[in-house]
Amino acid sequence: MKIGVIDCGGGFRGIYGTGVLDFCQAHDVWFDYCVGISAGSANLSSYLARQPGRNIPFYGEYGFRKEYCGIGNLVFKHNYLNLDYVYGTLSNSDGESPLDFEAMMANPAQFVIVATDALTGETIYFDKSSLRQDYYNAIKASCALPGACQPVDVDGRLCFDGGFGDPVPVEKALADGCDKVVVILTKPRDTIREQKSDMLGVRLIRRDYPRAAEQLMLRYKKYNDGVALAKEYEKQGKVLIVAPESTCGMTTLKRTQEQLDQMYAMAQKDAAAILPFLGQD
What's the alpha-carbon Rg for the chain, to the nearest Å? Predict the structure, then answer.
């Protein structure tokens, strides 16, 4: 049986996914197929490298540093989120919190990193072959929020966040052979996404990246349809949705340390449902 996990990310709310995946490591739950969208791709890189707890300071301690995100970065680097700092300075082999690249690559599980082509609007599914020691541009690209970040060059291809390419890729996971899939959301499962939440990003990128802007305008529908499909498969026993009861007041880019702690604790509790779903209770 091939077991998959999808971490749908969600900016700083992604700490919820970290909590779920840390629970899995602590209970010896290892997925065969891992799909990361946005912050979910960063969470899964640490999971695949078997580095429990590694992502926590990226949301908390590091996340409050001016080098990580802020208006200063936007003014001087044209990126509110400094992805080079996050996935370079901090994560490289000589960084403050290096990703164990060799362990991640040695893990036999498939790793799919979702991004969006900035020029064509096409959804891109990168795999491990796109990653090299201290070259994590595919993960950077998956996290490059339109309007908050410039697109990231991945081996000559400019890419934005995967969250508006395929925000809940249940269909892909099943098409790629998964028998069961755990879907990690960072908003309550019955949340209906609205188009207006993406319109600022659309306006900011429309001139330079019109096709990506067109896809961003459709994100709300793709997300809602993806969650609805996951719920249908959940009724059939093929999918388990793990989602928080609330966002604790967090948004994609706004949070407090207390909110982060609450979301992580909630994830640890909610993740217990994975064990019976996989027959490990």
Answer: 17
**Over the stretch 129-155, which tens digit does the pLDDT of each residue have?**
999 999 999 999 999 999 888 999 999
Backbone dihedral angles phi then psi of residue 53, each to the nearest 5 degrees: 85, -10
Nearest-angstrom CA–CA distance, 23 and 43: 12
Can you tell me the distance from the alpha carbon of 224 to that of 247, in angstroms, rounded to the nearest whole number? 17
**What does the pLDDT average to over 195-211?**
94
Distances (CA, A) of 43 to 103, 119, 124: 15, 27, 19
Residue found under tokens 């640490």: 46
Residue 26: which H helix or E strand, with range? helix 15-26
For the stretch 72-84, pLDDT in tens is 776 666 677 899 9
Which helix (H) or strand (E) is 126 found in, with range? strand 123-126
User: CB under 8 Å to 186, separation ≥6 — which residues?
Assistant: 8, 9, 10, 13, 14, 16, 17, 243, 244, 247, 263
